[in-house]
Amino acid sequence: MTGAPIERTQSEYGYPLLIRSLLRSGVTRAPEQEIVYADQKRMSYREFGERVGRLASGLARLGVKPGNTVGVMDWDTPRYLECFFAVPMMGAVLHTINVRLSPEQILYTINHAEDDVILVNCEFLPVLDQIRDQVEPVKRLVLLNDKDEVAETPLSLDAEYESLLSCSDPDYPFPELDEDARATTFYTTGTTGLPKGVYFSHRQLVLHTLATRSALAGTGHGRFNEGDVYMPITPMFHVHGWGLPYVATTLGVKQVYPGRYHPDSLVELIRREKVSFSHCVPTILQMVLSSACTQGIELAGWKVIIGGAAMPQALAKQALGLGIDAFTGYGMSETCPILTLSHLKPHMEGWDIDRQVEMRCKTGRPAPMVEIRIVDEEMNDLPHDGVSQGEVVVRAPWLTQGYLKDPVNSRHLWAGGWLHTGDIAVIDGEGYLKITDRLKDVIKTGGEWVSSLDLEDLILQHPVVIEAAVIGVPDPKWTERPLALVVIQPGEQISEAELKAHLHDFAARGVISRYGVPERIVFLEMLPKTSVGKLDKKALRQLYPE
Ligand code: AMP
After folding, report:
1. Which atom of ligand 1 approaches the CA of 363 most closely?
2. CATH of segment(s) 448-546
3. Tens of pLDDT, residues 44-78
4. What are the Cα distances from residue 79, in Å, to 72, 120, 473?
């Protein structure tokens, strides 16, 4: 690479992009600001900063050194936030263990990440106990306990979190680190094979934080600024809680951590703590709305990024009708995760609700520094006409550089120097990306592609339908045909023919093609979900192979 060389002063400080600067920024800006743990605890940013130092001192006493890996099994708590900072700031790697995986998969990720120490919420002790004989060499265990009584377990525990912190020094001498040092690791459960590890450096997390912050700054709807109250409702093990806890801490806003999710207590926390900014998957938003309606609690003014899966238009309409500012975020484990946000452009904010819903449910425009293309199989760019569908490939400063210890899949991920998302999308004339499918979920029928996400969205627009999934099943004549799996409101009734008529209405208006309407609709009590609450199409395909 060429360019003009920079002149350096010998005593100059070559400021590395490190996670500790994010913490320092929040503590300096808002030392008295609060961090709240459900009904359990309140503390100031100043105290939080001290606790981060104490945690590092305590972990160092347990033997944690730069380069080690520290696994965490916890719900969404300020403790977890302390780990988000203390562990990488020590030069160690934070492994956010997905506690919703099966014990076998948890075991696999612990061994694959080579965790040296595990911090475990007492609720997950039985899981660890079940796999302890197969966990590779001696792990140090630190107990995370919200209860007064001592947890009973045959596992030998090395420390209890609060006792460890109380007898540790808040002034831990955090080392100078290389900004490219690995800070975090976690596992994504793809559709096939074993979980795959992704990893992010300090520099990447800092740039992701700053770019996300800048995408969310300023005026207009759906912005996250000083004065907001933040509460995550995506698990902190899932892509660092979408990176927003780092953004919130850097800003110095009030933060609320809900612990384990119970819809009623989430709604009560939003009301009591005046939470104004959150993010969650569509299924959680649905639960929160139902609970708020049952409890008679208003959520008007609440801003919420919906991501992880497409936001159904019916859900967006319901949320907007309640005065909730719901919009979409798109990304994946491999991308840290934020790639795009569906903020309306200023001229769209006056649009009627239906047109707004349409734009808010698209995946939106790229965050700063994100380059997005939609390409055909030869990596040719496709027109941004809202119709041409291609794979989304991306570049940004914060994408995983590969899969941990998995060179083959890493090469596929980065084929041609672009990260392949495996998602299919269109880009419209306004520059808004809209995901139409996963490559492996797309339904190929009679030589055409039918978008399973579009079909699900239309089915969900029927008032009695509460969940819908569409998968492709093999068909001798058409290659594949769509099969719809549907859950309806308890106490309601609808026949297959009525639901098909609902879809044929859309076909008659040209919203979908006629061959997109499934011949078969199966009514179920519930649909299987993944560990982070998304529709589990892999499980559905196994259940309905034909
Ligand atoms: P994960 O790695 O588990 O976070 O899953 C990432 C995948 O979720 C993406 O590749 C998309 O297929 C899907 N996804 C995430 N956000 C959205 C969204 N807003 N709309 C549609 N699909 C999404």
Report:
1. 19
2. 3.30.300.30
3. 999 999 999 999 999 999 999 999 999 999 999 99
4. 10, 11, 45
